Amino acid sequence: MTTDRNREAQASKDIYERVTNQIIAAIEAGAGEYRMPWHHDGSAITTPVNVASRKAYRGVNILSLWAAAHASGYAAGIWGTYRQWHELGAQVRKGERGHLVVFWKISDRNGEAERQDGDADHDAPARRLFARGYTVFNCAQVDGYTPPELPVLPETERIAHAERFCAALGINIRHGDSQPCYIPSKDIVEMPAFASFRDAISYYAVLFHECGHASGAKHRLDRDLTGRFGSAAYAMEECTVELLSAMICADLNLTVQPRPDHAIYIDSWLEVLRSDPRAIFTAASKAQQIADWMHAQQADEVQGAA
């Protein structure tokens, strides 16, 4: 039993390192243009989806597949294993290299279970998490499959949807400050005037970021928001809400563009990732938790439109 546990632990370590190294490489490759692996064009096929289950990937798998799609120039976020493509009558082309996604073997006092969505709570007590990897291929790597044409809402409708989505969060948002920020002591999100942003989509990407911070208040998700600028805790929180903003923008079909003001964070993100191969898994898991909370606040009308 001990030997099996040791093997599982080593396999998990290898998975953590492989995924983390991929994301570090993607961050380093885009650092000169401030382009991170979670930046995307907001198209209806941005969120990675499994071709067989039709379910969206979650947690770190979203980030990992975004990085893979960006590096390889894939236009669609539709993925499947070799067997899944084969069962659909499609064929992975010879010589194509697959991409790593993660599922979890979770051991606790109630036994063992598996989660295959790439999302697990790394802070949960009384649990042992073992990462397992499997290989998926993008629809651009197969013959015999044509991605479905998805309707594209006009930008005005997508922006109106984003406004309703933010309003449903119940977070106090005030405008007029020169810099966007969340003030924990007052539980207020401060935002510059709408007109000071390049466009409406840029405004909402920043607003989701700040509302992501606000989700950490004790009466919401109760995260530790005491990290000081320059600390690892501060870098992790910033990374978490950046991922959250990208996830929500993808859900609402809004573009996430590079932000030069993030240059001050890039080195700290890389430092945290290099020092702890599990850090990006934790950040992605917390970002997924925030995204789930935000969606849970929505009225039925907004949920149906998402």
Automatic annotation (TrEMBL):
This is DUF1738 domain-containing protein. It comes from Bradyrhizobium zhanjiangense. InterPro entries: Antirestriction_ArdC (IPR017113), ArdC_N (IPR013610), MPTase-PolyVal (IPR041459). Residues 13-137 form the N-terminal domain. It comes from the Bacteria. It holds the Pfam family ArdcN. Residues 161-286 form the Polyvalent protein metallopeptidase domain.
